[in-house]
Amino acid sequence: MKMMSKNMSVNHDIPPLQINNDGLNESRQYTDEHPSTIDTSSNVHLDTYFSEEKVIIPSSDNDAFSFRKLWAFTGPGFLMSIAYLDPGNIESDLQQGVVARYRLLWVLMTATILGLIMQRLSARLGVVTGKHLAEMCYREYRKVPRILLWIMIEVAIIGSDMQEVIGTAIAIYLLSAKSIPLYIGVIITVLDTFTFLFLDKYGLRKLEFFFGLLITIMAVTFGYEFSVAKPEIVEMTEGMFIPWCKNCDHRALLQAVGIVGAVIMPHNLYLHSALVKSRDIDRKNNAKVREANFYFFIEACVALFVSFLINVCVVAVFAHGLYGKTNKDINVLCQNTTSTVIHQDLNTTFPYNDNQVDADLYKGGIFLGCAFGVAAMYIWSIGIFAAGQSSTMTGTYAGQFAMEGFLNLQWARWQRVLVTRMIAIVPTFFVAFYSNIDDLTGMNDTLNAVMALQLPFATIPCVAFTSNQAIMGEFVNGIANKIISIVLSILVITINLYFVTNTVISLNFNGFWITTIILFAIAYVLFNIYLVIHMAVGMGNVRLASHPLVRKFVIPPQSEFDSPSSYARLNSAYDMQRTYYTTA
Fold first, then answer.
1. What's the per-residue H, E or C state across 279-307?
2. Total tally of structural domains belonging to the chain
3. Nearest CA among 467, 485, 486, 489 for reference residue 538
4. Beta strand pairing status for 279-280 and 55-56?
5. Hey, what's the signal peptide range on this chain (predicted)?
6. Given this model, what pLDDT does residue 501 score?
7. What is the mean pLDDT of residues 565-570?
């Protein structure tokens, strides 16, 4: 399979593409010095994320590391890291501790590192091109595939939003001493979301500071639980750095797979690529672009390290307190407390039997109240509330970016929040109203499986665009980066599909649903193959690009866009130089 040379010289007589997008003329230039990177000199006024209030990067006379510059770039990475701390991740953490104690901490660390690698690609795309991932999908895919991609990402965003609603409702339920029913807490999440939306009226840096405050609240609350639990540090360290799970059963294997699905979230790649646009970067100056990539990567490393420590605290607390325990053990423990809040429904929460205890956000709070006093339960609830609220806001931004990018459509933020939150609330409300708290918290596992299915629709485009020289120019992924990114994407996607398959099997569907799932699986695989072919074309596979079916169904015709497509443009380059490549 012959590939285009990285330093290919394209005929300069080809006129640059001229388009009109909301009154904006742009051109895509192809040069030897910086081949066909997107011209971002023009101003695109979007209301989503402070497009008119960009953070100015301080200048310096040398290339030495500058903490002032790092501070100027600090913000997007921490907002991105909130997805690693949402209620779904917190529940995955405590279940990990209950099922395998400290023995899966290395999986959590590995998943976080994998997430960092993918987030780096996402941020580089936004920095180099000035366009976020959804905008690039609009430019580079045909209409039907990009609509399907948008639907898949919306499903992921709504699934994440449902987890945030569940987490916030449980936090409100516990903080109110169980006086506010779960279904009322679900409704309250609509109101508090709009309240938080007003915060961005006070400016970008203040909003980023507020998100930092929420992360600090999570660090303090979950750190407090860690300090009172006093878990075994030596065993934690072994679990973190020894990649093995001795005497682990099938539950632990599924939990390990679930960790990857909970940590690496598809919509977060779309979010991060857009957040980096909030910095004032001179994209005509390659040195400035390189500098931005460097500082954004450092910030992402710090942010994900903080999120990893918070997740480890949660795992350790419940690994120390609940691993190997039965419902009877916890029931007896709770009998020693005088709190009426904890005694209420105790025999339902932890039945007096010898079954191995299972855990969720609600049971985790009750256990902490029994083991360390009712204050620990309220502190836990505050942390869960902060996790739900912070991830709600970042999910709102991700949804706005997806809608504007994929559909070239702008909605007012309150409209976007209302639609997304209502879709998330309706099923959650009915489960909370007609069922019990176990069913509500159990939805998190199903939602993790749903979001795991959407992961290829973020990772494949992200790798494809950052490996496309027509898009990234000299910042294109090198061979090593391409191999690592592709292998990691395949690994993560395979792990998630295994997790989803086991989840579906455990649900014991009848024949009709099994047939439906099989048909969906076939369509799912075919769409992924389509995206992989599209990626191969973008990486320079001449034979694929010249195939009639690929030209007809994969490479987008320029007439379909208001924006230039590198694939359509490269197609003309292939036509002109096909003789060279087929005889080389």
1. EECCCCCHHHHHHHHHHHHHHHHHHHHHH
2. 1
3. 467
4. parallel
5. none
6. 77
7. 48
Q: Where are the alpha helices (DSSP H) in 511-565?
A: 511-538, 542-546, 548-553
Return the CA Rg of the chain. Answer: 25
Distance CA 265, CA 118 (A): 10
> Is 95 domain-assigned?
no
What's the pLDDT at 52?
66
Q: Does 3 fall in a domain?
A: no
Count of C-beta atoms within a 10 Å radius of residue 526: 10
Q: Taking the CA atoms of 340, 341, 347 and 353 in sequence, report the sign of the dihedral they define.
A: negative
Q: Say whether pLDDT at 45 is over 50.
A: no
| Helix or strand (DSSP H, E) at 204 | helix 204-229
C-beta separation of 476 from 485 below 8 A: no
The whole-number average pLDDT for the span 429-433 is 80
CATH number of domain containing 487 = 1.20.1740
Q: Work out the average pLDDT over 450-462.
A: 88
Residues 200/291, Cβ–Cβ less than 8 Å: no
Q: Residue 11: inside a domain, yes or no?
A: no
- Residues 192-218: what's their mean pLDDT? 81
* CB atoms closer than 10 angstroms to residue 311: 27
For the chain, what is the largest distance between any 2 Cα atoms, rounded to a whole number of angstroms? 84
Cα–Cα distance for residue pair 277/284, rounded to 1 Å: 15
User: What's the pLDDT at 466?
Assistant: 94
- Give domain status of residue 82, yes or no: yes
Nearest to 566 by CA among 457, 461, 468: 468
Instruction: Give the 3-state DSSP-derived string for 411-461, with helices as H, strands as E and coil as C.
Output: CCHHHHHHHHHHHHHHHHHHHHHHCCHHHHHHHHHHHHHHHHHHCHHHHHH
Long-range contacts of 3-8 (CB under 8 A, 24+ apart): 3/539, 3/540, 3/541, 3/542, 4/469, 4/539, 4/540, 4/541, 4/542, 4/581, 5/540, 6/469, 6/476, 7/32, 8/35, 8/469, 8/540, 8/573, 8/577
- Which tens digit of pLDDT belongs to each residue from 6-35? 343 333 333 333 333 333 333 333 333 333
Domain that holds residue 414: 29-57+74-89+100-120+139-349+356-583
Helix (H, G, I), strand (E, B) or coil at 16: coil
Q: How far is CA 180 from the centre of its chain?
A: 31
Residues 6+ apart with CB under 8 A from 419: 411
> How far is CA 374 from each of CA 231, 338, 361, 499, 561, rounded to the nearest angstrom?
20, 9, 15, 36, 59
DSSP 25-52: EEEE---SSSTT-B---S----TTTTTT
Q: Is 409 left (phi over 0), alpha (psi -120 to 50) or beta?
A: beta
The CA distance from 392 to 406, in Å, is 21
pLDDT tens string 294-333: 999 999 999 999 999 999 999 999 999 999 999 999 999 9
